[in-house]
Amino acid sequence: MSSTETTGGVDRAHDRSVATKLIFAALHGGIVGLCLWLAFALEWTDPVRAKLLAGCAVLYFLRHLITLFVLLKRKVEMSEALGLSAFMALFEIGFLLLGAGILRDTAVPFGGMDMLSLGLIAFGSYLNTGSELQRMIWKKRPESKGRCYTGGLFKHSMHINYFGDMVLFTGWALLTTSWLAFAVPLFMTVSFVFFHIPGLDAYLSQRYGSEFDAYAAKTAKLIPFVY
Predict the structure, then answer these.
(1) For the whole model, what pTM was predicted?
(2) How many CA atoms lie within 13 A of 215 on its CB side?
(3) In this predicted model, what pLDDT tens digit does every residue of 56-114 receive, in sequence order?
(4) How many whole angstroms separate alpha carbon 138 and alpha carbon 145?
């Protein structure tokens, strides 16, 4: 496998891809701007929930900027940017509309499940971005060159960043109070397990050899202590 081969649906070659990343960020910013307009400029059955869901979109956008311009070193194809932008529009606007009450006539009182959902959003965001920042800091050390990172949050799961997204999107879907929204975290989990993780593991095994294989043999693949 060459360093430029596509695995898990993405090109693993290192490339700054500045122009593509700027377009990606601009598209996502436009989606978030639309979410804010929908939440604050229009009348909804559940206006408080609509504003909270718009806030979730803002948080996700800020994390996306960190990922694009600080964490992500690999090449970003325009097709990936456009495809993911369409997916982001689907769930960010869709979640907001569902939570705002587009399919119901009354507001849902804010309660314990909503507190749980906000906690899941915060915790999932920490797991994803926090783990990536830990790895980036470690990778900058001279003694880390050419080695596989197995510490920090990654000692609990080989793909703790993906698990963080599962937690985040479960909380985000829960905040909508609509069972339809759970199609998104379900789709993401299936894509992680059957598509992204197998391709990434094959790439990491090729790149790091026995070091990665030993790590994989003793570490949960996705969900700490479970799988």
Answers:
(1) 0.92
(2) 20
(3) 999 999 999 999 999 998 899 999 999 999 999 999 999 999 999 999 999 999 999 99
(4) 9
* Neighbouring-strand partners of residue 14: 74
Instruction: State the Rg of the chain over Cα.
Output: 19
The residue assigned the tokens 């990922």 is 67
175: closest CA among 61, 38, 90, 54?
54
